[in-house]
Amino acid sequence: MQVMLLGFVLLGRSLEEKARIKASSDMNELLSLMSTQSRLVITSSESDSSDGNVLCSDDICVEVSTDDIRVGDSVLILPGETIPVDGRVLAGRSVVDEAMLTGESLPVFKEKGLNVSAGTINWDGPLKIEASSTGSNSTISKIVRMVEDAQGHEAPIQRLADSIAGPFVYSVMTLSAATFAFWHYVGTHIFPDVLLNDIAGPDGSSLLLSLKLSVDVLVVSCPCALGLATPTAILVGTSLGAKQGLLIRGGDVLERLSTVDFVALDKTGTLTEGEATVTSVATLAYNESEILQIAAAVEKTALHPIAKAIVNKAESLNLTVPSTRGQLSEPGFGSLAEVEGRLVAVGTLEWVHQRFNRRMSRSDITELEHAVTDQSSKGALLSNHSKTVVYVGREGEGVIGAIGISDKLRHDAEPTVNRLQQKGIRTILLSGDREEAVAMIGKTVGIESELINASLSPQQKSDVISSLQAKGHRVAMVGDGINDAPSLALAHVGIALQAGSQETAASDAASIILLGNRLSQLVDAFDLARATMSKVRQNLTWAVAYNVVAIPIAAGVLLPGFNFAMTPSLSGGLMALSSIFVVTNSLLLQLHGSERKRRG
User: Fold this and answer.
1) pLDDT per residue over 447-470, tens digit each?
2) Which residue among 52, 173, 307, 523 has its CA within the 20 to 30 Å range from the CA of 12?
3) Which residues are catalytic, by number?
4) Is the pTM of this model over 0.70?
């Protein structure tokens, strides 16, 4: 009997450990993507790669350990090889499979100037890249490190289970002692027939029966199942999220996300692609090119998509951009700088007015807006474009021009909003853009008109989220810019979209990062959170139900009426199977990922 008891316990521990190793296999898969060897390109100082050739005639390629690659080194990647380090393409054109990082099944085109990430696979042609980060600083290493940190963060429901598990052990020990006392001093006298059971031995010893039943109680009880119920499900959930391009910073994040009933969405770069283009320039007293020049000078160091659009437009027209001094940006409002000895502001109308304490007449503002709108109409802008107007002001003159910006709606924006609403999650739009542009985008994607908020500062966005939370709502905020960072930090769950390996203020403040930069991943995150917490609840229900049923049976509650009693070896087997059930049930979460792939 002793051998069987030890055998069951050891078998259970062995199977449990194998299951837990399988649960963390997703992280092992990510680590295995890292190439250990790299092809270092040694180039002479006279070589010129501007002709587009991947290798020059006097270039030398040497295979070295990836650990020896340093930032700034040139590395050659041939078709079919794994990219060993993060970097920027210097020469070559190819498509790269980034599915293991972003969850996107389609390969992504890469050419000179674009970034690539370690662990992704080069398919078509050779690429020469310049290493930008290596080793532990690479994108894939950061993901693995952050997921491992996340798996160490306890969810509140896990802390509850842990708080129960401690007293549970002492309760079981007390029940074991009570079982011995009852059967030895009382039970065998009330129910003398129980001594005929094999558990009492051939002599019908009440001492032997009492000892075996008290041992059964100790052995069959399973605090391990309570302890494993939450962490195993969180382990599988966060690992599965990493494979889908969802970087989740803790099990507590999954628990909070599963309870969210309101999603606040930014407009620019979130509902729209964030690749804004200048469609019109209007001015009442100057040339359009002059307005673009001074606006580009102010915006050339800013990171906002609208700023990039203005700078790109000026560069495409080969305009000379003046130098600036005293650059100042106010997120959500605009930028200010000294250009050719005079302050120039580019931003919202009210903000530009406040900078120079000069207000343009209402008729002139209307004329400017009509001029911008008329030019935009000639560009045949559709309803799936967001139209934004920024104003340009100069010291001593006030507003001197306006620039029309168009940003295309993401192709998955409307389906994502619809799917969220089908799940009972309401959506609210928070934007610093003008009311007309925000209202059009909100209506297009299907957000209720009363939940569309425009012309908000970063503080006002936070105030809207705070008011929703004060009403008892659980709010998730989705954004991508520095002006969204305060709201992302304030919300119950902050979710940031991130393209490639570039870190932003939004991704630093967020609890979840959508590495694929696709809004549809938002629905995947909700599905994963709900599926994970469903497994946690199933595991806890099983753990509690098992102990509630098994402990009384082990204590001999069926012995008088049904002549049934557990043996210590059977108790050990049931205890092991209980832990195995919890871990195996958590592993079934991986079927959630398989179902998602089939739907995709």
Assistant:
1) 999 999 988 877 888 899 999 999
2) 173
3) 266
4) no
